[in-house]
Amino acid sequence: MGQSWVDAETAGCDLGDERLNRRLGAMLEALGQRPGKSLPTAFQDWSNTKAAYRFFSNGNVSEDKIMEGHFAASALRIRATDGPILILQDTTEFSFKRSVPEKIGFTKISTGRKLEEGRYQKHAVCGLLMHASLAITPDGLPLGLTAAKFWSRSKFKGTAALKRRINPTRVPIEQKESMRWLDNLRLSTKRAGAPERCVHIGDRESDIYELYCLAEDLGTGFLVRSCVDRLAEDGNTTISKVMAQIQASGTHEIGFRDAQGQAHRAVLTIRHATMTVRPPIGKQRKYQHQTLQIIHAEELDPPEGRPPVFWKLITNLPVESHAQAVHKLEWYALRWKIETFFRTLKTGCRIEDIRLATADRLANCIALCCIVAWRVSWLTMLSRGTQSATAAAVFTEAERGLLERATPDRKRDGPRDLDFYVRAIARLGGYLDRAADPPPGTTVIWRGFARLADLIEGARIATNPGICG
Q1: Where are the bilayer-spanning segments (predicted)?
Q2: What DSSP designation does 433 have?
Q3: How many domains does the chain have?
Q4: Is residue 218 situated within a structural domain?
Q5: Is residue 455 part of a domain?
Q6: What does residue 117 show for φ and ψ, rounded to 5 degrees?
Q7: At what angle do helices 209-218 and 179-192 cross, to 10 degrees?
Q8: What are the strands, taking DSSP E only, across 63-192?
Q9: Other CB atoms within 10 A of residue 39 CB
Q10: Is residue 303 part of a domain?
């Protein structure tokens, strides 16, 4: 029998003690079987739950060491594919309610209800932030995380006040949270092992001149959404002024969903140009100018009631035609894949319901859940693509047997391929599998895994009557 998914994701881990390594594998398997359940429910008894708590509080355990094996497995999956690899970067926030929030840290100041004297009530939000890089294929298949960083804002206390006193561009990048974008770019490129294949994609927060320069030094690609109207050409104009003189190369239609989940269509007019982009005035002695490609995609005739779509992208990849500009837009549109991953992590694994008391313990637990959330996302997309993965490579023989027995008779016709078993898992999670239904998503997949774990336990008890006395 082949290597299990748990073995594959932990083979590269070394916690300095073989007992800790074995415990890591057992905990990952338990959380993978019951994503979203409380820790006592996932680990089933007090002995395993207590061992898990000791594991999370062990000083020799850290989130980096926990994910080291997954990073190595992601690199192997990257090397097993051909063509470009899109590495999506983004930040998410986890909020917690604690009687002693200082043990975890704070993420932001939240504005609450209006007080009688007219002021608004404000309070610090207890929580952690995580900045992650997710490698995917251009078809949208998640290959795994390549970097992850955890922190609270207390580490950067005073930075905002400093930026109010001086020009923010003169604050060293090492003193800003923005440094996370550069750290992840460097680590992801190294772990992927093929900088020329990587395209690092980020939203407007990633519009950092230092990132452009680092990508050039590493020989890797980037595609980010711009929010800064930078100096361009000879320094006496800006990107927006140059782009205003560029003729549109054509149009492109996209589909998207708004914050409420409503589907929309939009026709975008595309303009693209190659130009010299210069660093901010405060950094011109340290950094050289860059020759980059600019793409502006602006919606034609936007409807009333929602803001128009307007993407301003900047990249060091070739954009010499309308087709290449559209291609880069399609790549940027795949950035929502990391949002889906974060949703799976928060809603599916229910991170914010975990009752661990300190930041280090929470980061260790979140690191384990990141691997579980990736597997759910990977399996969801794997069954939709043209990849040649077999069901035996994903599910054990016992799991396949139970899924076949749990499948209604009318659904058992046809090949027992990977799609058959993924749909069987989804049906356990509430997927109706009607002819007109879209393919199952991550929500029904993670629910289905929890149901499957119960079926496996029931089958084990049924075949060993002595367990029940």
Answers
A1: none
A2: -
A3: 1
A4: no
A5: yes
A6: -80, 5
A7: 20
A8: 85-95, 106-114, 120-136, 142-151
A9: 20
A10: no
